[in-house]
Amino acid sequence: MYRRRTSTIFRGGRISEVFQKAYDNIKSTIDGEREDYILNVNEADYVKHLETKHKLLPPVLHFDEVSADSYEGDIPAEYFPGSFNLYEGKSYKKEVIQFFVPVSGDISLLRYRPASVIYFGGSGDFEIKGDSILAEFINFSNNAEEIKQKYEREVNGLHANYNILKVDIESFNNTLTDQILNYFNERKGKILSKKSLLSSLGIPLRKKEHIANTFAIPKPELREKIVVKPIVYEQGFKPEPTLDDDNYHKILKVINDVGKNFERMPSVYKYKGEEDLRDHILLTLDPNFEFGSASGETFNKSGKTDIQLRYDSSVVFIAECKFWSGEKNYLATIDQLLGYLTWRDTKASVVIFARQKDFSAILKKVRDSTSNHANHLGFVSNVDENWFNFRFHINGDRNREVKIAVQLYHLPDTQ
User: Which keywords describe this protein according to UniProt (predicted)?
Assistant: First the structure.
C-alpha cells in the first residue's frame, strides 16, 4: 500500500465531536432568538427548520462503480521490497495503480472515527479525494491479480469502522428532532416563567423598541441546502388558554364512542339530522366534563351544528358536524372551522356522518384530499380507521397552529 496522504479515513477525531458541535450550534441559535419570536413561532416549523439545517447525510460507498487509473511516481527506496538493490534515501520511478470508490452523501464524515469502537487492524487505508475515496498500490511485480487482492483486503478492512460510523450518524439523525425540541421547550419555558413573574408585579412591562420584523435566509451550507427560517410578524405575546392534549384526546374518544354507537344501531338514527346527532354527542359529553365551573369552561351551541368548549371568551375546542356531500363541501367545512378560530394551539374536530354505501371510498377521499386545503400543515396520525389527526394553521398566520381531528361514521340508509 502506498501511503502519501494526509486525509486518510477514520483517522480524525470521534464523530461524537461533530454531533456535540451541532448540538451546541442548535442551542446557541435557539438561545439567540428574540423572546417574541420563540413565543410566537410555529413550533413544528421551527424545529423542522433546525433539523433540516443540522441533519447529517451519511456517506454511502458505491463499490459497484469503482474505477481504476495509474500514474508514474517517484517512490522512496524504503517502499521497495528487499529484493531490489537500491540506494537508501533515493527515489525511483514506478507505476502506481489507483482505485477510486465513488461516495455520495457527506464524504467528509469519513474522516472521523466511530463514536465508540474502532478497529485498527486492516481498517482500510483509503484517502478522501474529491467525491471518492482512493487507494493506491505500487506495481512492483506487474501482477494484476496480486494488486487486485491487495485492493480487496483494504475494502474488506474498512467495513467494520464504516458500518459502525453509519449507525452512529443514523442514531444522531433519529434523535435530532427530540433534542431540538428539548432545547426549544427549555428556552420557551424560561421565557414564560419570567413573563409570568413580571406580570405578577402588577406594573406595565416596558416595550422594547427597534425590534426587527424581518429575517435572513441562512447562508447555504454543505450540499447547498436552502433552509428557510419560519417568519414571525408579531412583536408581542399574549398568553392564551389551551386545551391540553390529554383532555383533547378524551373529548375525541367520547365523540368516537358515540359515533360507533350510531353505527351499531343505524335504524335508530336513520332519520336523525345533523342537529339531532350533534345533540346526542353533547348529551354524552356533558356528564364526562365539568360545565359551569369557576374557570368558566362551558360547552355551548353556536349556530346549527357547532360544539364548543370555551375558556372565558376564548374557544379552546370546537367540533363541526356534517353529512358527507363530497370533497368540496368537506374542505369548505374546514374553512368554516378555521373561520371561527383566531388563536394558537386550538383543538378542533370535523365529525362526518356518511349515508353513502361505499364508506371506504369516503375514508380514502378524506386521506387523499385533506392536504389540498391551503392551510394544511401536515398529517399527524391515524388513531382508528375512521379517525385522522391533522395539523392546520389559522387564516393568514402559519405560526398559529390548529389541531383538527376528522372523525367519520357510517349511517347507511336501512330498509
Answer: Coiled coil
Q: Could you tell me if 52 and 103 lie in one domain?
A: yes
Cβ contact 406:387 at 8 Å: yes
Q: How confident is the model at residue 306, as a pLDDT?
A: 73
Low-confidence ranges of the chain (pLDDT < 50): 122, 198, 201-224, 226, 291-298, 301, 303, 415
Give the dihedral sign, CA 358/359/363/366: positive
Q: How far is CA 399 from the centre of its chain?
A: 16
Question: Quick one: 235 and 249 in the same domain?
Answer: no
Count the Cβ atoms, other than its own, within 10 Å of residue 252: 21
How far does CA 300 lie from the centroid of its chain?
37
Domain region containing 64: 1-239
- The identity of residue 237, as a single letter, is F
Name 19's Cβ contacts closer than 8 Å, sequence gap at least 6.
115, 168, 172
Residues 6+ apart with CB under 8 A from 154: 1, 122, 124, 125, 126, 135
Do residues 402 and 234 lie in contact, with contact meaning Cβ atoms separated by under 8 Å?
Answer: no
Integer Cα distance of 222 and 220 in angstroms: 7
The reported pTM is 0.61
415 occurs within a structural domain: no
Q: How far apart are CA 37 and CA 192, in angstroms?
A: 13
Alpha carbon of residue 268 to chain centroid: 45
pLDDT tens profile 9-52: 998 899 999 999 999 999 999 999 988 888 888 888 899 999 99
Task: Report the SS3 class of residue 45.
Answer: helix
